[in-house]
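Technical note accompanying the year-one report. For the benefit of new consortium partners, we illustrate the data format agreed upon in the data management plan: each record pairs a sequence with a structure-token string. No post-processing was applied to the example shown here.
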Amino acid sequence: MVQHLVDLLDAWLPTYQEDWVVAVLTQVQGSSYRKPGAIMLFHPMGKSLGMLSGGCLEADLRRHAQRAIQTQQVLQLTYDATDESDTSYQLGCGGIVNIMMVSLNKANNYLGLVNVHDALMRGDSGFYQLNIADDGAPSNAVSGKFIEQNQDGQMTVTLNTKTKKVIEQDTTLLNIPLRPPVHIGIFGGGLDAKPIAQMAQTMGWKVTVFDERTAYARTYDFPGCQIIKHPCPSVSSDLLNTLDAAFVMSHNLQIDAKTLATLQPLSLAYISLLGPVHRRDKVLELAQLSLDDFNGYFSAPAGLALGGELPGSVALSILSQCHGVLYHSKLTSLDSVML
């Protein structure tokens, strides 16, 4: 998604009472650019938020959005790319996608999207449940609500949880998994951390930069990031527990050791430490830790073997590996080539 749902709803909320239309990808047969549950918003003046394809469908969807506003009826659209002789939309994925478009209004409580935004801003995970109405049904025949994840963990939402259709009392419901944006901590605010922060924010991730040193982690070097200027051991555990991943890169042995000692007890999916193997061993010795002490994926040397040594290349390497871990992809680590 060009925007995480939180960012999309952030942009929508100031004018949410205007004639917006939501488009939801409800079903895919074969391959498609986006997966079921993807959401896009259209404004009658031509503005759109999000994306449902790589640019193949958006212009046509914008035209249908005008019709959804005028008729106040549900639109069920099907785009079939299995017929290679049909060049109407020049779809390259070769699949069939079904999209439901609904006008957002007071009568359908804006499909509960205001509450969805509030829940994600609180850091809640759960499911956005939307009923699928027939083509031509009134827009208020569709309703949406946020269902918070059960405390017993029976509805655990991870980054790779898939949207599911369920049938309840002859009603087809779409359960779209939602969780707050990925939150990464960069421990070390040097200039080489800037590309990591920039790339992560482009992906819609939340970034917090930690560095106790006066000359580092300056606000103008890390726009849009939260800056924490305290030694890592004194940082609030509530903040640290919101992190999904941590990049340790202060270039200072003592600071990195204190950081790893603080992070090790946390339930982080990914921790990376910058530098070669011999430096890693020194930092672990100072922290009184071993490789087996980490519950998540501990990458040291950090990143994938992509080549390149400048900050941008290093950022791409580390973020690619982190992304693969968070989304449970198979990885080729630097461990096998930097011994």
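Partners are asked to follow this layout when depositing records. The longest strand covers residues 21-29.
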